[in-house]
Amino acid sequence: MHGLAFDIAHMLAGALVLLSLMMLYQDRLYALINVLALHALVLAMSVAWQAWVHDAPHLYITAGIALVFKAIVIPMALRRMVFQLRIHREIERVVGSGLTMLAAIALVALSLEVMLPVTEGVDPVSREDIALALSVVLIGLLMMVTRHNAVSQVAGFMSLENGIVLAATGAQGMPLVVEISVAFSVLIAFIVIGIFLFRIRERFDTVDVEALDKFRGERR
Amino acid sequence: MTALVVVACIAALLLLALAAALGARASRATPLVYGSTAVICLVAFSAALLGDDGALMLPVGLPWLGAHVRVDRLAAVFLALIDLGGAGASLYAIGYGRHEHAPHRVLPFFPAFIAGMNLVVIADDAYTFLFAWELMSLASWALVMADHRSPDSRRAGIVYLIMATFSALTLLLALGLLAATHGSYAFADMRAGELPPWRAGLVLTLALIGAGSKAGLMPLHAWLPLAHPAAPSHVSALMSGVMTKVAIYAFIRIVFDLLGPANSTWWWAVPVLTTGGTAAVLGVLHALMEHDLKRLLAYSTIENVGIVFIGLGLALAFRANAMPGAAALALTAALFHAFNHMLFKSVLFFGAGSVLVATGERNIERLGGLIRVMPVSAGCVLTACMAASALPPLNGFASEWLTFQTILVSPALPQWGLRLLVPTVGTLLALAAALAAACFVRAYGIAWLGRPRSACVDGAHEADRFSLAAMAGFAALCVLAGLFPGVVIDALSPAVQMVVGGRLQPQLGLPWLSIVPIADRSSSYNALAIFVFVFCATGMGWAALHRLGSKAVRSARLWDCGYPDLGPVTEYTAASYSQPIRRVFGPLVFRSSESVVMPPPGDMSPARISKRMHDLAWEALYQPVCDAVLALAVFFDRFQFLTIRRYLSFVFLALVGLLLALTLWQ
Fold first, then answer.
1. Mapping DSSP to helix (H, G, I), strand (E, B) and coil, where does residue B609 land?
2. How many H helices and E strands in chain B?
3. Best residue in B640, B653, B662 to probe A by mutation, most A CBs within 10 Å?
4. Above 0.95 for ipTM, yes or no?
5. What is the pTM of this model?
6. Whether B642 and A218 lie within 8 Å, measured CB to CB
7. 3-class SS at B292?
8. Which tens digits make up the pLDDT trace of B473-516?
9. Is B578 helix (H, G, I), strand (E, B) or coil?
10. What is the Cβ-side half-sphere exposure of residue B555, based on CA atoms within 13 angstroms?
């Protein structure tokens, strides 16, 4: 039984990493949002599986939050936003997607290399989870760094936050209150970012953040 | 008991600072604050003088550490010094503070400054010590910045802040090295620790740099001649007279007490003696070249700190060679000189402040003839000048004489290096003493004697009675400490006994109130006899002149020897007085050069002489550091305005880099 539990947990966390990698080369915004929703869905499944394996009922709440907010509410809102911003047909040129993918693979290797020796002696399920969660975080950060479009940056940020939640459930240490407050703060951050996106659009006719840099008159 | 009283006094001073911050603009605030400060200081002074040893643990500070305070004999000596100086400065300021333009910039920080200095001395763990040290530095910085509109003050403030941070950093490192043995920050545990020689040497170096830069040792003195004159005069007196002594205390506490005799070696004396000797000579040379009265006094402080450090270096040398008697003599000389310097430098700064109030002028080239309008101040300042020039029978002579006595014992040292070095330092000390006399003859003669050199002296008036009381009190103490040095030496001996494990023989029991520092030698000094001799000789000379001189009235003719009207321009100037000394030492010490521009034949314009002088310490030590910091700042300025993606990239790269380092390190 333990072998199977471990395998499924491992598979779900691995799927999360895979989805993060998929996000990197999505050049259409709708597709990106779909992958983000899928990402959150897999996260919810992973957390729920952890809850079942470790018999920790409070983790079901975390899973529920992930499912409702991150897999349904936020992607829908993002879709609406993209539609209202009239950028749903825009194709974002993703610079050097091959190179980015290679970098992301290196990051996964790095996080495994860092985490596995550190967490020796920990429960193997959490151990794998933490290592993979770190790679999800790093890939999310990489996405925020490489993308120009503000919506893609939001997606990167959301996937990064998913990685943090995965790590936290793996560690079994984070109290429920903290988890809920983190979830809500992400929601609020999302709202604030959404409002800002509209303001940017209103003023600059684009959500490409390079326009902001040009407006500030600074070198790149 | 003493510890409790002192802690209560510190708390009272801090509360007073708070009250002053709230009510500084009230009309009676100035005399009230200074008066209360003076009273509190006197209470702490008498507690230190009469009290006993004791330790206390206060429930403040870090939760697992608390704040340890302890009053031992060494701390009591410095407590007495600080609070006497503080009381004098407060008394002076009751009158002087009325002329303050912005009292709310001075009043809150003055009591806090004194409180900080008191707390440094009684601190018994590293955390409390450094906290108090920073309180003292910050409060004094705020006082330096009191006149923040003048660019000079602002420059002084920034240089002072940087140097204070630097000195605190080195002291932090020194105490950290000491604490590393037991992992405890309490001084009691540090004392017990045995350190490897290299680490003990490092602690000594760091303490010398940290305490020395606060005390104004060359070449870390750069802030001192800027900051001391920039502050209001009573604060200058405190900074010069008292704060430098707190730095000396820090050096004694760390090197003599915390490192302990077990860790000390003879070569430690070498850096201390060399820096002390250099500071003594270079300080007084700079003072001789200075035209600003308060800057001159600040440079003279550097000289006196150098003399104190010579005494401390000798004490280190003798203690390392297990010669407690000689070490006690050296340490007594150092502590005695620190005390004397506090007395006479306070009077000198008070006098400079009164001159500043009366004339609005600090440049001695524009003063002159003040003795006729400010006779009482002139008398006090003259006494202090004589003490600073180490003239018998005043106190400055007594302590410098003791230092010389120590130097004369040095052939008994077993190390050849020290036997060669100590007489060299003695020569430097003698040179410094002679130059100091020249310096104060110049300062007093140009500023107070002669005829007024500018119109600013015309409206001058005598200082108010509080200022005069403070000056006269300290001048009287100078005379008393000079006439009865045995009292001071005996009062210092418990502290000396505690630090070096030996003491001088009790001096008060000796016949005719002489002092005999070394029992089995014949050298002795009797200030009273010299005083009587000087008094009688002067009196007899005066009587003879008046009795034997002609009383006939003479009227002089119109063209009096070809000089019908001696205007102020014909007087000696400060620059002309110091010119011979500048000619001798200038090329070496200041890399000075003079150039004369003669008008061509037939041109009626005057010839011009101009001199150029360099501050080598600044150019060689500070300028490269300034340039490096500036270059670094310009480099990092590029990262100030980047796009948000670049910032994110930096965070990302830093994270990945650290993870990589972690992986490789494992």
1. strand
2. 26, 4
3. B662
4. no
5. 0.78
6. yes
7. strand
8. 999 999 999 988 888 998 888 898 888 888 888 877 777 777 77
9. helix
10. 1
